[in-house]
Amino acid sequence: MFVLGDQLNGDASAFDGFEAARDGVGLAEVAGESEHIMSTKPRTALFLAAMRHFAADLRARGRMLDYALLDEPDNTQTLGGELERLVRRRRPAKVIITEPGDYRVRRELEDTAGRLGVPLEIRPDRHFLCSGEEFARHAAGRKQLRMEYFYRELRRRHRVLLDAAGEPEGGQWNFDHDNRGSFARGGPEGVPAPLAFPPDPLTAGVIALVNRRFAQHPGDLAAFDWPVTRGQALEALRDFIVHRLPEFGRFQDAMWTNEPWLYHSRLAAALNLKLLDPREVIAAAEAAYRAGNVPLAGAEGFIRQILGWREYVRGIYWLQMPDYAEGNALGAKEALPAFYWTGGTEMACLRDAIGQTLRLGYAHHIQRLMVTGLYALLLGVRPKEICAWYLGVYVDAVEWVELPNTHGMSQYADGGLLASKPYIASGAYIERMGNACRGCRFDPAQRDGDAACPFTTLYWDFLLRHERRLAANPRMALQVKNAARLSPQDRAAVQARAGAIRANGGFPPPPEGGQLGFGLG
Ligand code: FAD
Ligand code: SF4
Known about the structure:
Elements: E1 2-3, E2 24-28, H1 32-35, H2 41-60, E3 64-68, H3 79-90, E4 95-98, H4 103-116, E5 120-123, H5 132-139, H6 147-157, H7 201-213, H8 230-243, H9 245-248, H10 268-272, H11 278-290, H12 296-320, H13 348-360, H14 365-379, H15 383-393, H16 399-410, H17 427-433, H18 454-465, H19 467-471, H20 477-484, H21 488-503
Parallel strand pairs: 1-2, 2-3, 4-5
Helix pairs in contact: 2-7, 3-4, 6-12, 8-11, 11-12, 12-16, 13-14, 14-18, 15-16, 18-21
Bound molecules: flavin-adenine dinucleotide and iron/sulfur cluster.
């Protein structure tokens, strides 16, 4: 059997009927997976460290294992190439895999097996609560797909957060309105730091390897402390449920400079590597609510992310691929600004979000959606470029979850298949949700002029550029009406400044007679 780097679960379907005396396991570290998009050092290190720990566990359980190390001289550095080497060496009667999460990888393995003439048995991935077929049935005949209805269906089917009558606990399916708090002026106080997992010798070896082999890739490994085994992932889950879930809901959307984790779980990577099962994560959150340790709005908000959004985006991905990745509904044509790879910009919110992303391989959802994603959307960055960035930079990034979130939710490049409206806002939103604007030379309230916040300028420019399309969307009516009220002079001023930002590669132009922007200097 062939196990992929994001399938690190010894109970996956590919292991069903495994006979130690007859069957073997293959795993391969390949540079291609870090190079087809530019993978940051934390992302690559997490995958390799988790794979090596999983392999150690398989060996300890007496499994016959073919493990291709990254720096083996014969390593072909592609998954297809390594499957081929394995098949030629072991000459198996067939190869068994759990269905890959990514379309590209599935094709690569199918093509390789087909070319070699070896039967490939692809077994369903039981990790997810909703199979591709179930999602297709849910989608069939619906004019519009919306996460909320899908989520309700799964809540009922899996009996999650229901009362004795089978109705939603607390009489409501969704408590999103209670989950939009921001911090008082002094900022968050006493947020319990997440449990850290300092590198053991196996992980330290991976860190040295990644620093050497991928020296040119962005990112830093000095602070690497991610859980890399199932045992550690379970500890991280317990730590989150006890210490941070109680406030997760209230501050889910809040941001604060130099506070990368706040009340977030940091569990996405462990889930996506399959070190954790979503059922146990959901059950732990529900149990904490039932024990009276967590408010309903917080537990529901957290469960909705996993049972709702995570399953929903996977459903959309497999329903729509491969065409999904090709869309560009808003005709975006700008290049990704260079500061996305350095954090070198005067815009404080972007500098914070990108800086911590490169340092830690992490930013929380609102930073991804309403800072880095929002800027790319408003600027009009080509969807493929911004998707490749998101796929490369986060430790939890795998395409089945990254692509719908970026292409659909964040960039609206699917024209509204995933989200009912573009997630757009001006700098005022960022000011409300955090403190970045206090340390920024721009003013979120201004839309034109030297001090205008580039988000605010580009927000109004976005409304003007897409006026016709947005006018057809009732959820955008208010914003469209506000844009329609701009005087011709105001429109011209917004458009001139937006044009100058684009002409400057996405960097706000320097003030009249001033120095070049920080990122260019
Ligand atoms: P928490 O805030 O603690 O949330 C709990 C869990 O819910 C997460 O661990 C995750 O498993 C799940 N979750 C939350 N939101 C989503 C969502 N929108 N889609 C799917 N699952 C969700 N998530 C990834 O796992 N991989 C990605 O590559 C990825 N790319 C993203 C790109 C963009 C542009 C955006 C807007 C979001 C992306 N997300 C991605 C979703 C979300 O931002 C991350 O799951 C979350 O920030 C991870 O941090 P956390 O574990 O602390 O999550
Ligand atoms: Fe970001 Fe604008 Fe606030 Fe500066 S003023 S931090 S660019 S939102």
